[in-house]
Amino acid sequence: MNDPMPGITRPSQTASKTAPKTLATAALKTPLPASSKGLRHSAKVIKPAAACVEQVDTRYLQSLMGYNARRAALSIIELFLERLAPYGLKPVDFSVMSTIGHNPGVTSRQLCAALNLLPPNLVGLIQSLEARGLIERKPHPHDGRAVGLHATAKGQALMVQAEQTATELETEKTAKLTPAERKTLLSLLQKIYL
């Protein structure tokens, strides 16, 4: 027979001649005993015993900055969401309102840069806060194309209470830290993202 690719050996040509006999290939060729042929479907498959973990080892995760920062943040955010729910403020709403309150006349562009927000996300948020009567837009004193954002009297009153609540809950969640440790932790975290 003419081989279209002379000199190239295919597995099927050499398997029966050169393949070593292994338990797997031997098992395929070995017929089942007559007594076991009817038991194929009823035979039990023996599974290895499940490992029993006495104590979970998370040392590697605990060595990661991201893991620890996220665990700490989630712990605080959970309480934040609970305590600030009466004010109708989510973390991003709180951040925007606080920044506007402490920087009257701040522009949307400045807010995006300061809080690392995408402009399309901020547009809807500004509209929502404005609809609630918490902020208002005023012409920018130096740039005729821009508008400055200002907290209304209602927004200012809300943020006085909301910021006090946020301060209290953070003090509660960081009670295991000394004031010096808390200051150091804040400084180190800011070194990462600023």
TrEMBL record:
Keyword check for DNA-binding, yes or no: yes
Does this entry carry the keyword Amino-acid biosynthesis?
no
Q: Give the source's domain of life in one word.
A: Bacteria
Which intervals hold domain HTH marR-type? 62-194
Q: Which UniProt keywords apply?
A: DNA-binding, Transcription, Transcription regulation
Identify a single GO molecular function assigned to this protein: DNA binding
GO BP: any one term: response to stress
Q: Which Gene3D superfamilies match?
A: Winged helix-like DNA-binding domain superfamily/Winged helix DNA-binding domain
Q: Name one Pfam family in it.
A: MarR_2
Q: Which InterPro entries match?
A: HTH_MarR-typ, MarR/SlyA-like, Tscrpt_reg_MarR-type_CS, WH-like_DNA-bd_sf, WH_DNA-bd_sf
- What name does this protein carry? MarR family transcriptional regulator
Which source organism does the UniProt entry give? Limnohabitans planktonicus II-D5
